[in-house]
Amino acid sequence: MKVAIVTESFLPQVNGVVNSVRHVVDRLLRQGHEALIVAPGPGLRDYRGVRVVRVRSMAVPMYRTFPLGLPDRQVEEALAGFRPDVVHLASPIALGWAGLRAARKLGIPTVTVYQTDIPGFLRQYKVPGDAACARWVARIHKRSTRTLVPSRSAHAQLEALGVPNLHVWGRGVDLDLFGPRHRYPYLHQSWARRGGDGAAPTGRVVVGYVGRLAAEKQVRRLRELAGLPGTSLVVIGDGPELPWLRKHLPGARFTGTLTGADLAVAFASLDVFVHTGADETFCQTIQEAQASGVPVVAPARGGPLDLVEHERTGLLYLPSRPQSLTETVQRLVGDEKLRATLATNGLARVANRSWADVVDELVAQHYAGVIGHGDTLAAA
């Protein structure tokens, strides 16, 4: 099978869209398929032997390091030259629209993956136009042959916008990278010594956040955990909210961005993982924490509802209720047995969610399901 992937983001950027595309391409190659990547530039033009077509882009005002792809005739030329069986549109908004138009003109079916809630992103940054953006997102997905959503909440969101032919397709987790075996006692002990609350260092529970430090992740809620008795707070990641967090979390440890083996060790060396964002379409870091054998605390809204079964594979807090986050973390900090139970169950939940399994599902059910579809040529 020949698959062309038109993505709004790719290496050297590091984010959820890039990671998903990379894992999809890796598995396609391993299974003997051919692939082409179309992405906004600049960046590498070859990924593991796969051609990466770079198109014009502009910087996003709120994210200067994020190139936004622009309509470019290279997109249609690349697809026409490659002649794929299916076009995979990864989190389309701008370049994805160009990919959709080109695919429909060429009569190629599309599988469109909804991953980023752009209208919600605009609301978080108080940028006007979220309603118009939602209509634009709906327009793209309504014209796709098939749309894949990562969770039930994302399904409901697009269904309310009138998008048809929705299918839930979750994300995989790198089980070769993440695991409890990577827990590093020395690192855990060094983190546990930070806290300043008078607790014995060996008795402190290490509570950590992993992810981008940005407004849409609502990371300022970590302040609610500052100075929580018997805990040490670790913040793993980077982003525009870092200066604010450093100022208001003086006792926390900040590691900066970690990747690969360093990230796996850091995850496994936590005692509790906390996610603060209440507007996630999925939340990959929850799965990575579960794969690392770390109990999870997450908001009872959005994508986490598909990943965390309350009191079985993690704990859910009510993001709209004051003190709910603090009380939920306190409960877990004070109950070592519950932490162990949630960690065991969370690990079991992701045991069959490897990227290999998830991408094989994508190929067999969704790519194969649209090839030969009769609605591809409708006007975009």
Secondary structure: elements and pairs:
Blueprint: E1 2-7, H1 16-30, E2 34-40, E3 46-47, E4 50-55, E5 57-60, E6 63-69, H2 73-82, E7 86-90, H3 95-106, E8 110-113, H4 118-124, H5 130-142, E9 146-149, H6 152-160, E10 166-168, H7 185-192, E11 205-210, E12 231-236, H8 242-248, E13 253-256, H9 260-268, E14 272-274, H10 284-291, E15 296-299, H11 304-307, E16 315-317, H12 324-333, H13 336-349, H14 355-370
Parallel strand pairs: 1-2, 1-7, 2-4, 7-8, 8-9, 9-10, 11-12, 11-14, 12-13, 14-15, 15-16
Antiparallel strand pairs: 3-4, 5-6
Organism: Nocardioides silvaticus
GO molecular function: hexosyltransferase activity
Keywords: Glycosyltransferase, Transferase
Give short descriptive properties of this protein:
single chain, 380 residues, alpha/beta, Rossmann fold, 2 domains, 6-stranded parallel beta sheet, globular, Glyco_trans_4-like_N, hexosyltransferase activity, Glyco_trans_1, Glycosyltransferase_grp1, transferase
Task: Give the proportion of residues in helices.
Answer: 25-40%
CATH topology of the largest domain: Rossmann fold
The N- to C-terminal Cα distance equals 25 Å
Counting structural domains, the number is 2
Structural class: alpha/beta
- Reported CATH architecture of the largest domain: 3-Layer(aba) Sandwich
Give the name of the CATH superfamily of the largest domain.
Glycogen Phosphorylase B
